[in-house]
């Protein structure tokens, strides 16, 4: 459950990258992602918006819808794409660098303890009803399970059964709207 909690704390914001500034997957000799090494210590919501990021502040989208749309257009065309997602929660800032290499998705979460390169085959837009309400839910997840549904995902993340939880791992939840 702790792993799921870490994964759900993604701080997502996607900065638009000019072609000459395209983000690259950079790994150290141990295979850990190094793309977060030079992030500013006091990055602000205003700076992230100015940088063209997809910005989430206390669970509300602030800016960056066009960056996410551009990423999806590139992926749908079979082209490489990258996007930085930033989430502000209270005084904390979280980052996810998202890549598509023409065949697989790669996501690096600044809260991950190892930052190893994990590949995902699918970026799925899941919708369904939240438990106990008539409210519709919406999730975007990276996964290797082409049959993952909103109901299966929700059941797994709310389960106390280890096998049920592990049935959807690995995955990455992307808080884009």
How many structural domains are formed by the residues?
1
Estimated structural class: alpha+beta
Distance between the termini: 25 Å
Gyration radius, in Å: 16 Å
Q: Tell me roughly what share of residues is in helical segments.
A: 10-25%
Summarize the helix and strand pattern as letters.
HHEEHEEEEEEHHE
Please report the number of helical segments: 5
DSSP strand content: 25-35%
Could you tell me the mean pLDDT? Answer: 81
Would you write up a description of this structure?
There is one protein chain. This protein has 177 residues and is α+β, with helices and mostly antiparallel strands. It has one domain (2-174). Helices cover 21% and strands 30% of the residues. The protein is built from 5 helices and 9 strands. The strands form 2 sheets. Strands 2-1-3-4-5-6 form a 6-stranded mixed β-sheet. Strands 7-8-9 form a 3-stranded antiparallel β-sheet, with no helix packed on it. Strand 7 (122-129) and strand 8 (136-143) form a beta hairpin. The model is unreliable at 1-14 and 16-20 (pLDDT under 50).
Brief account:
The protein has 177 residues and is of the alpha+beta class.
Per-chain topology:
Layout: H1 2-8, H2 45-50, E1 54-57, E2 60-63, H3 65-76, E3 81-89, E4 92-100, E5 105-109, E6 119-120, E7 122-129, E8 136-143, H4 150-157, H5 162-166, E9 171-174
Parallel strand pairs: 1-3
Antiparallel strand pairs: 1-2, 3-4, 4-5, 5-6, 7-8, 8-9
